[in-house]
Each structure stands twice: as structure tokens, then as C-alpha cells.
Amino acid sequence: MSKGMFITIEGPEGAGKTSVIQKIAYTLKEKGYRVTATREPGGISISEQIREVILNKENTEMDGRTEALLYAAARRQHLVEKVVPALDAGEIVLCDRFIDSSLAYQGHARGLGIEEVYEINQFAINEVMPELTLLFDVRPEVGLARIQAHQEREVNRLDLESLNFHQKVREGYLLLAEKFSERIVQINAEKPFDDVYNESISCILSKMSK
User: Fold this and answer.
1) pLDDT band at residue 1, thresholds of 50, 70 and 90?
2) Are 128 and 151 in contact (CB under 8 A)?
3) pLDDT in the model for residue 3
4) What average pLDDT score do residues 159-177 get?
5) Close Cβ partners of 114 (under 8 Å, ≥ 6 residues apart)
6) Hey, how many other C-beta atoms are within 10 angstroms of the C-beta on 1?
7) Phi, then psi, of 182 in degrees rounded to 5
8) Residue 87: pLDDT above 60?
9) Is residue 109 scored above 80 in pLDDT?
10) How far apart are the first and last CA of the chain?
11) What confidence tens digit (pLDDT) does each residue in 49-67 have?
12) What is the mean pLDDT of residues 161-165?
């Protein structure tokens, strides 16, 4: 049985990742591929419980290192319980956020250091990395305005951070896109949904054909 493919979709708050992932998963299934679409933090029971702690709006006193460690713990459990078994079964795994989120949010925006947070996560992921990462780039003013307009979406602790924090998150992502240019493809997520979807599915199908 052939090994699967691990694809992650990253981006700041309000980048529209979830909707595009759903359509990508549908398209790939229509083409006959077996697909697992999941998210971080979460995707399985233990990680979803950790997610509730991390994103709880009441937990405003949470230390940045505590936050980074909780994300890494959720990531580890999700990886061994859901992602790796799916990959071993030959499936395409589409994951909404992975290690790059920790590097951008905690490493850069929280000021803990990208390399320092990378080291924490190396212990968690044990060298499992995505073969392709789509970075949905959106200015924080645009992303946060989308969240405010989309009332059905959960508002979490990170949504309540200052505009300066979200600007640093985007800055962190752009630094990562330069650092890991062989893996990360940057997509302008301020474009209409269909444009973002078409560019995303094109990148994925191109990667799969190699």
C-alpha cells in the first residue's frame, strides 16, 4: 500500500481555511482519493479537550510557554492517534494548522523564539512534517473583520488579542514562507473564495503528480 500525503493549511485568523479545506476534501474524494480532513488543536477527543483549555476566553492569564506546551501536547496526541494511522493507510491528510501555527503565534508573535518553539515541537512530532503547506495570507484587518461578520464562528481567546499581535502573527508566517520555501506555498486569501480554492487545489494536484 502506498504511503499517504500530509498537507497542511495555515494562516492568520479569518483566512478562510476551514471552508476551502472542506471543498478540497470533497473534490479529492470525487476524484477517488481517500481523504482525512482534520484540525489543530483538536481532531480527536483528548486534543479537543486541550483545545478548550487553550482557546477558552476566560484563560487570559495563560503564560506563553504554557500555551506553546499545550499546543505541542495536543499536536502529539492528534498525530499518533489520527494523522499517522491515516498516512500509513495511504490516505491524503488535510490538516487545518500544524507546527507552523506554533512557530508564528507562540514563536514570533509571543516572542518565545521560532527556534525555541521549533525545538519543543520536534519532541512532539518526532520528525513527521507535511509535504506541502498552503499559507493563506490575509491582512489582520481583513481577517478580523471577516470573523466579526461571521457570527456563527466561535470567537476564541486568540481572536481577542490586539491588532499588533495579529500583525506579528502574519509577519511570523511570512518569515516561515521564506525559511521553508520548498514546502510552503503562499496564497492570497483576500481573493474571492473560488480563486483561493482553485489555486489551492491546483497546488495540491500538482504536488501529488510528482
Assistant:
1) very low
2) no
3) 79
4) 93
5) 103, 107, 108, 172, 175, 176
6) 6
7) -75, -15
8) yes
9) yes
10) 18
11) 999 999 998 998 999 999 9
12) 90
| Other beta carbons within 10 Å of 129 | 14
Q: Can you give the pLDDT at residue 153? A: 66
Place of cell 499518533: 80
Chain centroid to Cα 55, Å, comes to: 15
pTM (2 d.p.): 0.94
Using the predicted structure, report yes or no on whether residue 155 has a pLDDT greater than 80.
no
Between the CA atoms of 189, 160, 116 and 74, what dihedral angle is there, to the nearest 10 degrees?
-90
Instruction: Please report, as a single letter, which amino acid is at residue 95.
Output: C
Grid cell 525559511 is found at: 179
Torsion of CA 111, 113, 116, 121, to 10 degrees: 80
Q: Where are the beta strands (DSSP E) in the chain?
A: 5-10, 35-39, 92-96, 132-137, 184-188
* Cα–Cα distance, 190 to 51 (Å, whole number): 27
The torsion defined by the Cα of 18, 156, 139 and 190, in degrees rounded to 10, comes to 30
Look-up of cell digits 505541542: 72
Sheet holding 5-10, edge to edge: 35-39, 92-96, 5-10, 132-137, 184-188
Q: Identify whether the C-beta of residue 102 lies closer than 8 Å to the C-beta of residue 71.
A: yes
Say yes or no to pLDDT of 152 above 80.
Answer: no
In this structure, the chain runs to a length of 210
Residue reference for cell 456563527? 152
